[in-house]
Write a structure and sequence with these properties.
Oligomer: heterodimer
Structural class of chain A: alpha/beta
Largest sheet of chain B: none
Number of domains of chain B: 1
Radius of gyration of chain B: 21 Å
Number of helices of chain B: 10
Shape of chain A: elongated
Helix content of chain B: over 70%
Low-confidence stretches of chain A: none
Number of domains of chain A: 2
Shape of chain B: elongated
């Protein structure tokens, strides 16, 4: 008993379709196309308060996405948040005195890390630390301060 | 004390069935080598289980995606967030609806057919006939069906999700005028390959395994009569639906509930 031709063709089409669908999900729907990030380099930045920053948040410079936040941990020695930024290997000439700040996209949007270039000749390399940082703006604190100022007046 | 005995009998019968199902599974797994040496057995079953399910899966994926696009648009547009349509639809399809609905449709379309086929083989003594000829039905009949069902499910779920996303693209972009660039770019920004696509595929692998296991076991274990086959077919659909939905909760809690 031999398998009919049309059965083999149909199974072939089915398997090809299934794999094509999975590939489309991977390439078109998810972020797997950002493979270059996997061989990017890590830079550490310490913040007093990271607000709502989460792992996988974008890292931007001049508004262009150049990397992602890959780890966030708490440093017990100086009570700060240690944020690891993985930056695309293509961008390897960022000045060593680049500063980092946490911004919010829109008023209620996601937090992201914005980098601002410095002027130094030396560049950031794997493992180097960004020393000039600015914490996230916490909306509740701002409102609280506004109220306090209103009372004092 | 009259109600205690039936309760106990029921529980013992259930555990017995579970034990039989497990012994059955190990015996089938032991005979899977035959599927490697005779791949045409598996290809024939891939046709019966996978290719013939394609129609219902594609159609359901399309309508589910279109409905999802329409409903989400109506909710999101109130917040001016209709550009989030892409991630909302993609995440719900890839994480939940794709694997679960595919498994439920699979149980109705392919699982019931497997049970009825194997049950009738048993009722008409074909299985014992094979044993008489020293052909192990577990290797020859059950093994290829099990493997084909298990392999088909992730492919079918992938097709379901992909077509669903295309359906919501059609409704959202072509009919309702959401921006196409925002649709895809937000989707890519929010859907992670490992966290969403891979875990969704793991889900459908688990569901495929459980659904096929239940289907072939119910067929193999049914009482060899017309009534027994019909009852086993019903049980396949009901048990698979229950198993898939409860497993889905467990898997979701394990994989997404940090």
């Amino acid at each position: 008993m031999k398998t009919p031709r049309y059965v083999e063709i149909a199974v072939g089409i089915f398997v090809a379709l299934g794999i094509a669908a999975l590939v489309m999900l991977a390439m078109k729907v998810s972020n797997v196309a950002e493979v270059s990030l996997r061989n990017g380099y890590n830079v550490i930045a310490r913040f007093d308060n990271i607000g709502g920053l989460k792992v996988r948040a974008p890292v931007t410079m001049a508004g262009v996405k150049i990397g992602r936040v890959t780890a966030i941990s708490f440093d017990q020695d100086d009570f700060s948040a240690e944020v690891t930024l993985t930056i695309d290997a293509r961008y390897d000439r960022l000045p060593a005195d680049t500063s980092a700040a946490i911004y919010t996209a829109g008023i209620l949007g996601e937090n992201y890390v914005g980098l601002e270039a410095g002027a130094e000749e030396q560049t950031l390399t794997d493992g180097s630390e960004i020393t000039i940082t600015q914490s996230a703006m916490i909306l509740e604190r701002l409102i609280g301060r506004m109220f306090l100022e209103g009372i004092q007046k | 004390m009259n109600w205690v005995q039936p309760l106990g009998r029921g529980v013992i019968a259930m555990i017995e069935r579970l034990g039989r199902a497990n012994i059955f599974l190990f015996r089938v797994a032991g005979g899977l080598g035959e599927c490697v040496t005779k791949p045409r057995l598996v290809i024939q079953q891939l046709y019966a289980v996978g290719v013939l399910s394609l129609q219902i899966i594609a159609l359901s994926g399309l309508t589910v995606g279109m409905v999802l696009g329409l409903q989400m648009y109506n909710t999101l547009v109130d917040f001016g967030a209709e550009s989030s349509l892409g991630p909302v639809v993609a995440l719900s399809l890839v994480r939940e609806l794709g694997p679960v609905l595919t498994a439920l449709l699979f149980a109705g379309r392919a699982g019931s057919a497997l049970t009825a086929e194997i049950g009738l083989m048993k009722a008409t003594d074909q299985l014992s006939g094979m044993e008489m000829m020293a052909v192990d039905p577990l290797r020859r009949v059950i093994g290829p069906r099990m493997l084909a069902g298990w392999l088909s499910m992730p492919l079918l779920a992938g097709i379901f999700s992909a077509i669903g996303i295309l359906g919501s693209y059609f409704v959202g972009i072509v009919l309702l005028g959401v921006d196409a660039g925002a649709f895809w770019s937000q989707m890519q920004a929010r859907v992670d390959f490992f966290d969403d696509i891979v875990t969704g595929s793991i889900k459908s692998l688990v569901f495929g395994f459980v659904a096929t296991w239940i289907a072939v076991f119910e067929g193999y274990d049914c009482s060899p009569s017309t009534e027994g086959v019909s009852r086993a077919t019903t049980r396949t659909v009901v048990n698979t639906a229950f198993a898939v939905l409860s497993l889905d909760f467990v898997l979701t809690a394990l994989m997404f509930g940090e």
